[in-house]
User: Fold this.
Amino acid sequence: MFLDKLFNLITKNKKVTDFLSFKKGTVVNIRHGSEAEFSVGIIQAIKDHCLYLNLPEDFSTTDIEGKNLECRVEEKDFEYLIYGSVSGVRVGEFPLIEVAVSSYHKYPNRRNAKRYSTNYNTSITLKDLNNKISGACLNISLTGVFMAVSTEHDIELKSDVEVEIDVGDGKTLKFSALVVRSVKEESVNKYGMQVRRIDKVNSQILQDIISEIEQNVKSLALYYLIRRRKF
Assistant:
């Protein structure tokens, strides 16, 4: 079976802690079902076959149990792709979800810049074409973006594009990019784009965005570390 080869399956004789040793406070990007966007979560503990995470604000407590989850953790040397399902939910002042891990994949982190999950409205224009294609920026880094568009649009690899991202507060991030990755899914097409040309003004906007996201993630992690609970 393909998944057996690609992923390390967690069996009854193995525990998550035998393979994954994330510390409390580790940032994890989470999505469930067919959602295109990731939400940010914080690992609270790892026990037996389960991860314990804070419940992201945009997750509902009423229908999340039993949902399949995809979790991504990016560290300095490695990235982890973890699959599982929500096996328990604790509501109250400190809501948590218990994720029963079924498989994971560990691979070298060859990226030259850290990525951050986002959900910005984005438009791209292909070279020599005037019509704009609308989509969503799913993650961003100092060197590129990953965005989703409707399946009616099929963009070829190595295409030159102009990117405009609405980053809020009346600001628009603009730069030229090269399409370097293509992922076709049932509901959307996703494209990785590498920044090719960016002026000083937009370079500063991009740096400010990354700094703000980093600060927000650190604040979120600190919030849950201070309110530590035993499992």
Remarks:
- The CA atoms of residues 165 and 173 lie 5 Å apart.
- Residues 1-7 have pLDDT under 50 and may be disordered.
- The longest helix spans residues 200-226.
